[in-house]
Design brief:
Distance between the termini of chain A: 19 Å
Radius of gyration of chain A: 22 Å
Largest interface: A-B, 41 and 40 residues
Oligomer: homodimer
Number of strands of chain A: 8
Structural class of chain A: alpha+beta
Strand order of the largest sheet of chain A: 3-4-5-7-6-8
CATH superfamily of the largest domain in chain A: Chorismate lyase-like
Number of helices of chain A: 8
Largest sheet of chain A: 6 strands, mixed
DNA sequence: CAATTTAATATGTACGAACATAATAGGGGA
DNA sequence: TCCCCTATTATGTTCGTACATATTAAATTG
């Protein structure tokens, strides 16, 4: 059974998303909500803590509980949200458009193996795309992104990708049956190669941000989201996000 | 008076930091802690929630409460930690060394004003530094960082900086009396200028990551940490972190 | 002795009560 | 009318209890 405080939190989140509690408005008091949902005030408070933690509402003594932000779209669970946060922080926001340039199977040579932290010869599915600012009429690209996915899942990923190219979210949510996901990410400054020049609408040799993402699926036992930074190479840093789903 | 759950959380955090509860060990049960601290189990749980939220411990039904990570050094409050997290994610980790290259008062021309989102003519204190991987004998720089601080606080900051060049943390913690801090941050790919070439140990024109930070102090009324992404320019993104202290 | 079942255990969820505290609203006095 | 004080109010903190549930450890059984 769904936990009561979770139910209350979800109900309120949906009410905010639906506009029943517009941004800036004040929610009913905790006692009123407790009565409406037929739960104790403690339970309402537990729900409120969630909403507050996610930044949806702010609370002040006797100032009521104000709705501070619009609720996020439904269907995105905690992990996706965490990833989206990481994404928002590290990359270019969730609103940036992506255009897939290339989907290819690659075998790691020694250089790539070093960069990805794997043994040479390992197979990867590499999805290269270009990001641009949405709504920009000139459609100027802002970034080149390489996504590396564990080669063992290449076929599955290809199938799930289908026509639409929503790499992000699609992967995490549609590849079921896998109990574990690991993501590594690098950001670096690079010179624009001849291959990149045309899609990036710039000249070869220009300066560009490069983002490399790695998706791994395993069955290791790790309990929590962790995040660490390993500045290994010059002009390069990486993060890792682990989570047992 | 310090709230009891805060006291318990602090006591446990310090106990973990001191090694009384080493990483990997299991804490006493909630009932035992309640007895030791002479509080109710609810209070202990409230404290535990804090520790869990900060990633210090993990809890499992009847598996006890495990210590998962070393406690951070004392003296860093929530805001500093949040900043350090952001820092860890966006930049090169808290362990990277910094070497200050230049501290200068600058007046924003039209270009800088656009980049910083201010009116031309506004005064800023600009602190430029180079980051390098700690422990690297070759001391290879990995990044050039420009920190812009509201010119109104230039003198104060200069005074507080003193000899040691811990820009980060020093600022946030030592500039008291200000109830509000706003930070903006940009990461971009740039070509190495002639000025940067020598400290970065590379040739002018090479590709480098550039990080620009902006510190503002105001008295606006905003209650919570928020974070948004504004991909304004090509090869550029920014984040904002707001917090009332 | 191995496999299964059962009991003990620590955390998870939920309730209700009481008092504290800060913000607001209202009333009284100058 | 304006200011100050007071009463009200909604959230903040803390307590104690009860039961649920997942995990571990012990006991039972084949």
């Amino acid at each position: 059974m769904e936990k009561r405080y979770a139910f209350v939190a979800r109900a309120l989140t949906e009410a905010i998303a639906d506009g029943r509690h517009p941004v800036g408005s004040v929610l009913p008091t905790e006692f009123e909500l407790a009565e409406q949902f037929a739960v104790s005030r403690s339970t309402v408070r537990a729900a409120m803590q969630e909403l507050q933690a996610s930044g949806l509402v702010s609370r002040k003594r006797n100032a009521g509980t104000r709705v501070e932000a619009a609720a996020p779209a439904r269907g995105s669970d905690g992990f996706t949200q965490a990833l989206n946060t990481i994404e928002a922080v590290q990359q270019f926001g969730t609103e940036t458009e992506r255009h897939v340039q290339r989907v290819a199977d690659v075998v790691a040579d020694s250089e790539l193996a070093t960069q990805l932290g794997c043994r040479p010869g390992r197979r990867w599915l590499c999805i290269s795309s270009v990001r641009m600012v949405p709504g920009d009429a000139t459609r100027t690209p802002i970034c080149w992104t390489d996504v590396y996915i564990d080669g063992a899942f290449a076929d599955e990923v290809r199938a799930k990708m289908g026509g639409h190219h929503e790499i992000f979210g699609t992967l995490v949510e549609k590849i079921s049956g896998r109990r574990f996901v690991e993501i590594r990410q690098d950001i670096s400054a690079v010179g624009v190669s001849r291959e990149m020049a045309e899609p990036l609408k710039t000249a070869a040799g220009a300066h560009a941000l490069s983002i490399r993402r790695q998706y791994l699926f395993a069955s290791s036992e790790l309990a929590e989201v962790s995040l660490s930074v390993h500045p290994a190479d010059r002009f390069r840093y990486s993060t890792r996000l682990l989570r047992q789903s």
